[in-house]
């Protein structure tokens, strides 16, 4: 499987990648569905036809943010010629910021102060002026998002939203002044990364990937990635390293999402070693976790793209899974110590973590079907979507505005795959699991509140269409036509509260360690011994619908499920 063969017909805006993911999941499920009814097979085939039409659409010209964003031509938006001094002062961090909940980026306080000073003094002109403007306005947009999280006054929120529009329009104006023919430089790299972060926030994933790719090429041209020793480094080194690891993170994450070849060159050390975090920022542990996850995504993309033997793929998946096991305790402990106002950001990280695990399991299943791995894949899909639903049900706890979507989509819907949804959809067709169907319905219903963004509307249309394909099966079951006794015994629901204690219990993992499944041969051997030597696909279908009581040894800890 190669990136080119996996994504034919990707449109110019890169907006049909979710349909491509769905097609891949459904094709794998249809590989052997002899023991489900003809009606269920027909629904899966209809779903495959639906997503294939979306995945193989003819390339189109994408207007995107740079070509025709309405904010640029909106007469109600007055764009200042230069960032106002008051804005620069507001964004300055002071030593008394003991608990700064601003989302960090690649522009440190010292770097920002230097840029702000140059703008105030009028010392920068031409391309440098626009590069600094992009960096400062994107930081302002992020800050306004965070202010909206704590603002309770409707008038204040409305003004924050209006300011955000002005900053976005000003940023887009300066981005259009970029000249990729100018010699590479650190300010150019910083502004390209800032521009990519804005495109991510706006849901313009293709533009995000393109801008960040330009930054990666400039980093390679200047040799900034050739870092071998970080024990002693100057302020200039720290500024470069911040740009390097942020560019690396965006590149690996988006390349995995879009199934495109990464642009960032290989590094001699782990990019996590380059992290320089403000002492007052509580986000340090989370940034490290996301960077570690991006490295796993990069390796997984390489595994999926190479034409290697199944043995190599299985070994690589085993190693990646072990790395995920190492990350999980750190994710839990950092979440427990996070300040209450930002603890929901760690639940968004839960979605990311389990979505990546789903991709690892699916890569494993493509080479060799193992029922325990299949079960883990389903459990991870549920866990990921439970976190996603929880965030949708608590929009007030996340930074951002409801027009057109809450900001946590910058982490979830626009940076990480929705494969968990498609995995659960196929399981719903095969097992008629009511709780899984309710979970997907809750998500699509919550997503329907957010309008005004073309890409989000495409995603919602895709998810809604798949959901509607399932509805006749449940209607028939209610009428007694095709009832089945299988139902998942445990509902993994988030509590309807946002207290710190409840959040901690809500995001407890479904198991303490990922020790079950095929990564340990003794587990697989015991599975076959327990069920007998001749187990056909129908038995596995029954297994996937309900875990038999007392079947697993507690040492395996398969997501804490019991009969």
UniProtKB/TrEMBL annotation:
InterPro entries: AtrR-like, XnlR_reg_dom
One of the GO BP terms on file: DNA-templated transcription
GO molecular function (one): DNA binding
Top-level taxon: Eukaryota
UniProt domain Xylanolytic transcriptional activator regulatory: residue ranges: 208-279
Transmembrane segments: 408-429
Keywords noted in UniProt: Membrane, Nucleus, Transcription, Transcription regulation, Transmembrane, Transmembrane helix
PANTHER family the record matches: MISCELLANEOUS ZN(II)2CYS6 TRANSCRIPTION FACTOR (EUROFUNG)-RELATED (PTHR46910:SF1), TRANSCRIPTION FACTOR PDR1 (PTHR46910)
Full protein name: Xylanolytic transcriptional activator regulatory domain-containing protein
Protein source organism: Aspergillus sclerotiicarbonarius (strain CBS 121057 / IBT 28362)
């Amino acid at each position: 499987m190669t990136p080119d063969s996996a994504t034919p017909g990707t449109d110019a805006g890169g907006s049909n990648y979710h349909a491509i993911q769905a097609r891949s999941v459904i094709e794998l499920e249809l590989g052997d569905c002899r023991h489900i009814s003809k009606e269920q097979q027909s629904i899966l085939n209809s779903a495959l036809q639906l997503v294939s039409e979306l995945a193989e659409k003819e390339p189109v010209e994408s207007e995107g943010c740079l070509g025709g964003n309405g904010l640029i031509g909106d007469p109600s938006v007055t764009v200042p010629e230069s960032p106002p001094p008051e804005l620069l002062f507001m964004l300055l961090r002071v030593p008394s910021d003991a608990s700064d909940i601003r989302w960090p980026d690649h522009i440190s306080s010292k770097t920002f102060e230097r840029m702000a000073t140059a703008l105030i003094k009028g010392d920068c002109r031409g391309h440098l002026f626009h590069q600094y403007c992009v960096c400062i306005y994107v930081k302002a947009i992020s800050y306004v998002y965070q202010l909206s999280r704590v603002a309770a006054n409707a008038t204040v929120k409305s003004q924050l939203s209006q300011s955000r529009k002005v900053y976005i329009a000003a940023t887009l104006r300066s981005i259009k002044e970029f000249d990729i023919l100018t010699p590479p430089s650190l300010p150019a790299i910083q502004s390209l990364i800032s521009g990519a972060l804005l495109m991510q926030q706006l849901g313009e994933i293709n533009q995000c990937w393109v801008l960040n790719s330009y930054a990666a090429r400039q980093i390679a041209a200047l040799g900034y990635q050739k870092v071998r020793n970080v024990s002693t480094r100057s302020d200039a080194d720290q500024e470069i390293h911040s740009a390097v690891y942020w560019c690396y993170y965006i590149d690996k994450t988006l390349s995995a999402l879009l199934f495109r070849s990464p642009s960032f060159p290989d590094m001699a050390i782990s990019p996590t070693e380059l992290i320089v975090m403000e002492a007052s920022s509580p986000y340090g542990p989370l940034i490290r976790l996301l960077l570690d996850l991006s490295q796993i995504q990069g390796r997984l993309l390489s595994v999926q793209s190479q034409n290697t033997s199944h043995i190599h793929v299985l070994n690589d998946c085993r190693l990646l899974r072990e790395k995920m096991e190492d990350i999980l305790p750190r994710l839990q402990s950092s979440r427990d110590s996070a300040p209450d106002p930002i603890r929901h950001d760690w639940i968004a990280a839960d979605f990311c973590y389990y979505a990546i695990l789903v991709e690892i399991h699916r890569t494993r299943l493509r080479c060799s079907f193992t029922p325990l791995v299949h079960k883990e894949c389903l459990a991870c899909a549920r866990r990921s979507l439970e976190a996603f639903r929880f965030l949708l049900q608590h929009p007030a706890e996340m930074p951002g505005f409801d027009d057109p979507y809450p900001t946590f989509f910058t982490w979830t819907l626009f940076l990480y795959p929705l494969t968990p949804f498609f995995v659960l959809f196929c399981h719903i067709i095969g097992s008629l699991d009511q709780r899984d169907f309710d979970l997907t319905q809750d998500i699509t219903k919550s997503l329907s509140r957010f309008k005004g963004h073309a890409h989000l509307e495409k995603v919602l249309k895709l998810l809604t269409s798949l959901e509607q394909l399932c509805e006749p099966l449940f209607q028939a079951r209610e009428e007694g036509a095709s009832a089945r006794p299988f139902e998942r015994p445990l509902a993994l629901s988030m509590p309807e509260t946002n207290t710190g204690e409840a959040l901690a219990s809500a995001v407890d993992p479904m198991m303490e360690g990922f020790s079950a499944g095929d990564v340990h041969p003794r587990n697989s051997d015991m599975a076959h011994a327990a069920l007998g030597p001749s187990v056909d696909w129908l038995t596995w279908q029954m297994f996937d619908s309900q875990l038999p009581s007392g079947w697993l040894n507690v040492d395996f800890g398969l997501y804490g499920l019991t009969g």
